[in-house]
Each structure stands twice: as C-alpha cells, then as structure tokens.
Amino acid sequence: MIAAAVALALRGLARTPPESEPSAEGTLLGPRLRAWYRGVLAPFETMLVDLGAPPDALTWAQLAVSVLAGTAFATGCIFLAGWLTILAGTLDILDGAVARRRQAASPRGAFVDSVVDRWAEFATFLGLGLFFRRSWVCLAVVGAAFASLMVSYTRARAEGLGIALTVGRAQRPERYVLLGFGAWGSGLAAHLFCPLLGRPTHAVLAAAVVLLAVVSLATAIERARYAARLLDAGGGR
Q: How far apart are CA 71 and CA 182, in angstroms?
C-alpha cells in the first residue's frame, strides 16, 4: 500500500508544472514539489473557503497541533509526532491560502500568524529536546531551534527595513518536511528493526535533526549576508 501511494505521488509530481513563485527557487523541496503539494491541498482549501472557515481558526489550530506534536515527541510517540508535525505544516500553508482566497488577508492576520508560528516552533522543539534530553542530540535540537528562529527573525527584520527576503534552502515548508518525515521515518524504522536490535532506535530522527540544524543555520547566514549586501548597496551603515 505504501509503495502504491509513493508511486502515485511520484506520477503526480512528474506531471506537475513547477511553481512560479520566486521564493520556491533554490529551496530543498524545489518549485515542482511545492506546486504538487499545493495541488493536493487545493480541494481542502476550496472546501474551507466554501465553509467560511476563518483563517485565524486555522492559525490557532496549527498551534494546537504543534503542541500535540511536542507532547508526542516528549512522550516518545515519534511516529505520531511526525504525522502531527506534517499536519501542522499543512495548516500553516492553508491559513494563508484561505485568507487570500477569502480576501481576508491583512497586516493584523500576518502579524498573528507570524507570532503563532514562533510559539508553534517552540512547542515542537521543546518536546523534541525533552525526548533527547539524555543524548548529545539535544545539542543539535537546541541548534536547530535557534537556527530556525534566526531564519524567521532575519526575514522579519529585513522586511522591516524594506527588503523582501525569501532566499535560502530551508524555509518553513522545508523545516516541517525534514522534521515531520524524519520523525515518521524514524518511528517506522524503529518498529521494523526493533526485533533485530533488541531495542528501539531513532537514528533516523537524530540525523534529521542534525540536518535541520545545519541547513537552517546555513539559510540564516545566507539571508543575513544577502540583506547586508542590499543595505550596503543602498547606502546603509
């Protein structure tokens, strides 16, 4: 069943034209994969618009799901945590899309969405840190949390100075995918290989966290350097 689902997804991906959004260029997922997933979500987006779902409700739902994901991580329910993380990322996409479709996008909504996103990230990383609290991986979790925060902060600070900043490989969708599918794959691997090893292992999740920390830090540095160059060119200090 899993193989059939993967085959259908790859077939759909191959037939999907790349997303024309500039922010998708150079990302880990790439414009084609982003466009494919948005196509998958399109029926749900339309249903939410037809039902009159408030975008703020989706934003708060994302926070609630992120808290559940953090709780699942903290209690060792890694497979479930992976799915909840992916669901939170999906809600993060849908709230903005629904707001635009309903012509309800506003500075207030953007502000609330940005603030809630930070709380949601904190809840997820807190649970992840609690799970790895007796392992060296906890340091990687701290690094990933800090780097993810800096990716978002650098963009917000640059936009406050009038610079549109979307460069970098690890944007929010990429971070959700790395952590969500890393946890999902780790939970599946632990279930399959536990009889052989005699104990559950979450090396896949540990690798995903380390990769997340590295690519997020690289993205934060890339954005900072890019913004600094633009500010220098514009006569900034």
A: 17
Find the CATH number of the domain harbouring 120: 1.20.120.1760
Q: What is the pTM of this model?
A: 0.82
Q: Give pLDDT tens digits for 16-75.
A: 455 545 554 556 666 677 777 778 888 888 888 888 888 889 999 999 999 999 999 999
User: Structurally, how many domains does the chain consist of?
Assistant: 1
**Mean residue pLDDT across the chain:** 82
Q: Which domain holds residue 128?
A: 56-93+106-233
Could you tell me if residue 158 is inside a domain? yes
Domain assignment present for 73:
yes
- Please give the torsion angle defined by the CA atoms of residues 20, 24, 28 and 29, in that order, rounded to the nearest 10 degrees: -50
Q: Which of 29, 114, 104, 119 is nearest to 65 (CA)?
A: 119
Query: What residues have CB less than 8 Å from 186, skipping those under 6 apart?
Result: 78, 79, 82, 202, 203, 204, 205, 206, 208
Please indicate, yes or no, if residue 1 is contained in any of the structural domains.
no
